[in-house]
């Protein structure tokens, strides 16, 4: 069926719907002006309804920026985001320099319960290298516990290494619960 024939059929269906809606309004005792409004409104609603439903369903499937805050951030913005979450927990935050940080991006909390945090904003799952870096750098920064925070999930190798060293992993779907994890680790 060509697009022209489809368009003509669509117009005929909407015209028939308009006539049927107007006649139904008249037969139920509505004044003629109301029947005219119904005859115009019903096809317009029928025309917009499929698009509205598709948009509503797509909107339900699309996470809001609050649900996935890290999606549009750069690496440095992600570090700032994690630091803001930690500060929101009422603990001091030290942002380490970009170079010479021993693999630790943030130092969160007070002695003796300081946490070394490695932030990884990536487009794929995070491997064991991030865990190795923060575990090795934590003693150099006088931290008692370690954490890797990412916008992505972690590979099985990273999970195994983190479990072996007691490193906390927060990533992917757990990111909205980061503040709970920070509070738990820094409370002592």
UniProtKB/TrEMBL annotation:
The keyword Transmembrane applies. GO terms for biological process: DNA restriction-modification system. It comes from Mycolicibacterium confluentis. GO terms for molecular function: DNA binding; restriction endodeoxyribonuclease activity. This is Restriction endonuclease. It comes from the Bacteria. Residues 71-175 form the Restriction endonuclease type IV Mrr domain. The chain crosses the membrane at residues 7-27, 33-53. Keywords: Endonuclease, Hydrolase, Membrane, Nuclease, Transmembrane, Transmembrane helix.
